[in-house]
């Protein structure tokens, strides 16, 4: 089947060049594989593939992996499949049960408003992880939600004040294991993905991916390699080839820097991907891969998975590449930022719980300084490369600033505040669908994050409390493209990036990428009675 796919793909793409061939040979080369290829296409339904891509984007999954997964499960007929049901094999839920405690107000003003202390604090009572279709569906049912619209149900459950639900995704290999795929089924999935047929058939969907291309932290994509050996330079074209194939071409320079640190371009496994999840051909031990091109192909796929799961943070992603997948959930609960000290802490923690693992005989797991060593070989464009989306911070004058950079939203979209009962905020629309996930959202003033997660009505949302000139405010930023890059309890500065502009599929009032922005004083309430006009706040007229 794999040969037929490749022949057909080649024939469809290059039929004009083949037109001079003999008629009989041409019929054999073109017609037979084409018919086989059409039979292997995902039901021939472009809209169904787009539905899968939309669900993949919502759950932070690689859309090609989700499509290939169900192509094999349903014998190439996606019409039988349900993308949300398939996505359950790719995700893991971390659920914290919370206890909300009211804090005593220490001081009130003449109006009776609390100006010191007060508020609430969340305490984690218990924590549990749910993986795979059966566990996740059981969790949804036990919380009284419907399993017909899984994403909507998870948003609704996550909106409960007594639960904190976070979601992460894993790769195709674990998904296939959870779904009990046979060896033949796993082989067919890999062949579909390796052929590149889905990307070639649906090029408009190439940009649908988790945190790829985001400027998170101090290291940005788009830079070039520096100080690398001629061996590494010699692999540049292959790195570009597979980076483009898997939709991470903006990291070509970074991948070259990784190769320099991993091997200086020497040996048959220059990206040291033998022990990674995408090596399915050679032994899993160190330097098991005996084909340099295959090492690059597997390494690029592993990098893509790492950067997606890290939400675009290149330093966390590259240290995960070195440490393994266990580093990512650990660092997310230990500051969510790479530092050498944190990496050393994880290394010691891992060896204390896995003393017999290779390399732990001296108490050190992996290379804690790996991310810093890769960075040494990279021309980091930093925040300058993010100017089109505002960088990690934007500047402004006054007590409050705009939550989006100038010229990133359409004119006239501020004037939508009607009343709390009608529309408690304003919708700042971007210029086109292409801007979704590419334009930053920023805190209008310094403050503390009071909520960061998912809501059934707001989608991905962030709430921030501010104290300005003795008065309390709470700002709300809704319909973000990805899981917020800030966490509850985190202090943020004015102009600090908190997320990316997005859209919430399935919500009737969210039909185009935009920021729904609210300001409340002294705080947000479910009846929206404290809502004030955000335009007046930002302009300093309130």
TrEMBL record:
**Has keyword Iron?**
no
Protein name, UniProt field: Lysozyme family protein
Q: What organism does the record attribute this protein to? A: Exiguobacterium antarcticum
UniProt keywords (A-Z) are: Membrane, Transmembrane, Transmembrane helix
Q: Which residues form the CwlT-like lysozyme domain?
A: 231-353
Residues passing through the membrane, by range = 21-41
Q: Return the Gene3D superfamilies for the record.
A: 1.10.530.10, Glucose Permease (Domain IIA)
M23ase beta-sheet core domain ranges (all copies)? 423-533
């Amino acid at each position: 089947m794999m040969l037929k796919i490749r022949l057909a793909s080649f024939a469809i793409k290059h039929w004009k060049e083949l037109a001079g061939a003999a008629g009989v040979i041409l019929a054999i080369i073109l017609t037979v594989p084409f018919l086989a290829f059409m039979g292997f296409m995902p039901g021939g339904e472009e809209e169904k593939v787009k539905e899968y891509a939309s669900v993949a984007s919502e759950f932070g999954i690689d859309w090609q992996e989700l499509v290939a997964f169900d192509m094999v499960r349903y014998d190439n007929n996606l019409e039988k499949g349900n993308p949300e049901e398939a996505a359950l094999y790719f995700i893991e839920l971390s659920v914290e049960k919370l206890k909300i405690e009211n804090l005593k107000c220490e001081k009130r003003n003449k109006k009776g408003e609390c100006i010191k202390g007060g508020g609430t604090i969340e305490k984690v009572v218990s924590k549990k992880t749910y993986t795979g279709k059966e566990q996740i569906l059981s969790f949804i049912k036990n919380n009284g939600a419907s399993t017909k619209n899984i994403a909507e149900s998870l948003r609704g459950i996550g909106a409960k004040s007594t639960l904190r639900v976070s979601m992460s995704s894993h790769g195709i290999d674990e998904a296939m294991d959870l779904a009990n795929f046979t060896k033949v089924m796993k082989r067919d999935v890999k062949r579909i993905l390796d052929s590149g047929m889905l990307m070639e058939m649906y090029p408009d969907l190439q940009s649908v991916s988790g945190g790829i291309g985001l400027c998170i932290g101090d290291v940005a994509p788009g830079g070039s390699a520096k100080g690398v050996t001629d061996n590494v330079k010699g692999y540049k074209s292959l790195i570009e080839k597979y980076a483009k194939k898997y939709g991470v071409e903006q990291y070509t320079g970074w991948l070259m820097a990784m190769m320099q640190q991993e091997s200086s371009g020497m040996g048959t496994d220059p990206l040291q991907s033998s022990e990674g999840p995408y090596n399915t051909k050679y032994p899993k031990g160190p330097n098991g891969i005996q084909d340099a091109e295959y090492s690059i192909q597997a390494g690029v796929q592993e990098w893509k998975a790492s950067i997606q799961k890290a939400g675009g943070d290149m330093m966390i992603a590259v240290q995960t590449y070195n440490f393994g997948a266990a580093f990512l959930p650990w660092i997310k609960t230990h500051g969510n930022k790479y530092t050498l000290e944190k990496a050393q802490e994880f290394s010691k923690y891992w060896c204390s719980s896995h003393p017999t693992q290779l390399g732990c005989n001296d108490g050190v797991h992996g290379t804690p300084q790996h991310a810093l060593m890769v960075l040494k070989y990279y021309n980091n464009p930093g925040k300058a490369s993010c100017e089109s989306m505002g960088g990690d911070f934007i500047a402004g004058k006054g007590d409050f600033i705009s939550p989006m950079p100038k010229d990133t939203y359409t004119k006239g979209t501020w004037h939508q505040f009607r009343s709390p009962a009608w529309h408690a905020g304003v919708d700042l629309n971007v210029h086109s669908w292409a801007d979704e996930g590419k334009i930053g959202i920023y805190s209008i003033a310094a403050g503390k994050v009071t909520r960061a997660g998912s809501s059934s009505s707001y989608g991905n949302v962030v709430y921030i409390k501010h104290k300005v000139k003795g008065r309390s405010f709470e700002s709300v930023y809704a319909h973000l493209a990805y899981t917020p890059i800030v966490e509850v309890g985190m202090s943020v500065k004015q102009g600090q990036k908190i997320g990316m502009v997005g859209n919430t599929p399935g919500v009737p009032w969210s039909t185009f990428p935009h920021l729904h922005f609210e300001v409340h004083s002294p705080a947000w309430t479910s009846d929206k009675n404290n809502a004030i006009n955000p335009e007046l706040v930002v302009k300093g007229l309130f």
